[in-house]
Amino acid sequence: MIMTKKRMKHFAIILAILTAIFFLNGCGSKIPSPTETTDAFLQALKAQDDEAIAGVYADEELDLLDAASDSEEEAEDTEGSEDLNSGLESVYEEQLLPKMLDFDYEISNEQINEDKATVDVKFTTYKIGEAFTAFFGDYISQAFALAFSDVSEEELDALAATILSSKLADLTEKSYEKTVTIPLTMIDGKWVVDQLDGESDIIDAITGGLVTSMKNMEEAFSAWDEEE
Fold first, then answer.
1. C-alpha 108: how far from chain center
2. CA 207, 192, 57, 99: dihedral to nearest 10 degrees?
3. pTM
4. Strand bridging mode 116-125 / 104-113
5. Residue 36 CB neighbours (<10 A)
6. Rounded distance, CA 76 to CA 206, Å?
7. 58 or 102, which is more confident?
8. Does residue 109 come out as left (phi exceeding 0), alpha (psi in the -120 to 50 range) or beta?
9. Which residues are within 8 A (CB) of 82 and not within 5 positions of it... i.e. 6 or more apart?
10. What local confidence, expressed as pLDDT, does residue 29 receive?
11. Which residues have a Cβ under 8 Å from the Cβ of 218 and sit 6 or more positions away?
């Protein structure tokens, strides 16, 4: 059967359309999936890349130390103060934060419902919460023993830095595991990780149980105040 010019023209049009569709699907821009977006967010968080975080996160930045300790109000109260403990600050920056950012993770179970999505993330990291609880117990014990001696505030600060540094140095294995669900929202044609509450299980998982440790200490102090 000889193909007429009309049919050849029709065939050529169909071929052109199919080629265009193939090109758009194969080479055009593809919206990263919720799984890919979460992976990009966590990689940016580990690298402390604020610009990359802003591109996949509902807020402009995420400070793990502030989020875990919920210390925004405290930070505002001490802003501009020259009495900050440089020893503890060094421990936070040189030991605590690096430990927080050295987490491993596995993403699974992506679920999409219109403009909302969730993924499950299993975090594996250091037992930072347990280390912080142990630090606080040792510090209170030793500081109380020194309370009746002529000890300065600077000496107590140095004691706190020494004890915390020792507890963090003991964290050599990633034996803390926790699986949480991370929510995402489609905004302006792309998925972004929802803003994380500082008291959420997600921040707790990333920081190795630090949020739980802080909550337990807060509850203990509250109970102590009520007894008094």
1. 17
2. 20
3. 0.77
4. antiparallel
5. 16
6. 24
7. 102
8. left
9. none
10. 60
11. none
